[in-house]
């Protein structure tokens, strides 16, 4: 009795302690490329969303642009001026400020398109794998048609058609939403096919059969029983597709059917700077390209690590 009274009280671990004791954290701390990529991605996201606080100017505000300070080279050049660390473009827009604000737009469009693609893909995949029959055939044939067309062509077609349907004075304001819609329509198929395959496997297992015998609604079975067991490959695919969504947005903006020059993303900045690449104003294009490359490479490195870390065969 005394031993029970004097026994130490074991406090439950916090979430941070449980995370540090997990296999995923152990794998992350021993993968230097993943740690560097995570630091770079975190730094770029923080600086992008803190742009109003740290950027020398607001590139979206024409009142802050000064043509007298246009075409200035980076600060380390002979003609460089403070506070334009990376120089200015032909309109006097600070390149560093434009990159920070443009990165925020690219990241937001990438996140929104991936989240919307996940919602559509998970819903269609669960319905197709659980219901099967004609619904499964219809959804998968639509997916096969979309997969037979290059992703960028679908995005270009959807973006061009939707933009032409909108009034001319609303096209610039709706540019971000159009891009998210275009990327979503070309990106949901991968999630749907992955979830469908996992759902077909889980559907035949005993716990799902028991839930069906107990008259549990199909929607509840799909959401609370099957969906949690399909999230591991979806998480990896979403991480990798985040970088692809940013690249797709940059491509559409570079082609002139994405974000307008008044609200430039990284792709728009590259398109505008490409016109002056061979006239000596190399910094207008080079620095946005470097930012885009670092952003996409960081996401892809993290996605590769996550794929290996969540693969039980590699543990």
Describe it.
This protein is an all-alpha fold and 315 residues long. The chain is 68% helix and 0% strand. The longest helix is centred in the middle third of the chain and has 37 residues, at 95-131.
Radius of gyration: 24 Å
Largest sheet: none
Shape: globular
Structural class of the helices, strands and pairings? Answer: mainly alpha
- The whole-number mean of residue pLDDT values reads 82
Ranges with pLDDT <50 over ≥5 residues? none
Beta-strand fraction estimate: under 5%
What sequence of helices (H) and strands (E) makes up the elements?
HHHHHHHHHHHHHH
Helix amount, in percent? 55-70%
**Number of helices, where a helix is a run of at least 4 consecutive DSSP H or I residues:** 14
Total E-strand runs: 0
Multimeric organization: single chain
Distance between the termini: 44 Å
Comma- or semicolon-separated keywords:
globular; mainly alpha; 14 helices
Task: Summarize, please.
This protein has 315 residues and is mainly alpha-helical. The chain is built from 14 helices and no strands. The mean pLDDT is 82.
Layout of helices and strands:
Elements: H1 2-6, H2 15-20, H3 23-29, H4 32-49, H5 51-54, H6 95-131, H7 133-147, H8 151-165, H9 175-203, H10 206-213, H11 218-226, H12 231-254, H13 266-274, H14 283-309
Helix pairs in contact: 4-6, 4-14, 6-7, 6-9, 6-12, 6-13, 6-14, 7-9, 8-9, 9-12, 10-11, 12-13, 12-14, 13-14
């Amino acid at each position: 009795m005394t031993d029970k009274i004097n026994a130490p009280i074991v406090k439950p671990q916090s979430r941070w302690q449980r995370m540090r004791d997990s296999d995923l954290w152990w794998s992350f701390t021993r993968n230097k490329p993943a740690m560097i990529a995570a630091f770079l991605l975190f730094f770029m996201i923080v600086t992008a969303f803190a742009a109003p606080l740290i950027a020398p100017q607001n590139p979206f505000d024409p009142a802050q642009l000064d043509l007298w300070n246009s075409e200035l080279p980076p600060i380390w050049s002979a003609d460089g001026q403070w506070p334009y660390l990376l120089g200015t473009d032909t309109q006097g827009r600070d390149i560093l400020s434009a990159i920070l604000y443009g990165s925020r737009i690219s990241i937001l469009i990438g996140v929104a398109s991936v989240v919307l693609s996940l919602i559509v893909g998970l819903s269609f995949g669960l319905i197709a794998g659980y219901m099967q029959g004609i619904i499964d055939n219809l959804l998968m044939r639509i997916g096969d048609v979309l997969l037979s067309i290059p992703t960028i062509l679908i995005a270009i077609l959807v973006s061009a058609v939707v933009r032409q349907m909108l009034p001319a004075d609303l096209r610039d304001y709706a540019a971000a939403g159009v891009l998210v819609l275009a990327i979503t329509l070309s990106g949901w198929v991968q999630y749907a096919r992955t979830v469908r395959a996992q759902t077909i496997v889980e559907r035949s297992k005993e716990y799902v059969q028991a839930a069906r015998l107990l008259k549990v609604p199909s929607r509840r079975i799909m959401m609370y029983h099957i969906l949690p067991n399909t999230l591991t490959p979806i998480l990896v695919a979403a991480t990798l597709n985040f970088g692809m969504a940013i690249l797709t947005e940059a491509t559409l903006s570079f082609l002139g059917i994405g974000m307008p020059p008044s609200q430039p993303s990284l792709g728009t900045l590259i398109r505008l700077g490409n016109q002056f690449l061979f006239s000596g104003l190399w910094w207008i294009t080079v620095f946005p390209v470097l930012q885009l490359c670092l952003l996409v490479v960081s996401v892809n490195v993290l996605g590769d690590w996550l794929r290996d870390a969540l693969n039980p065969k590699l543990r």
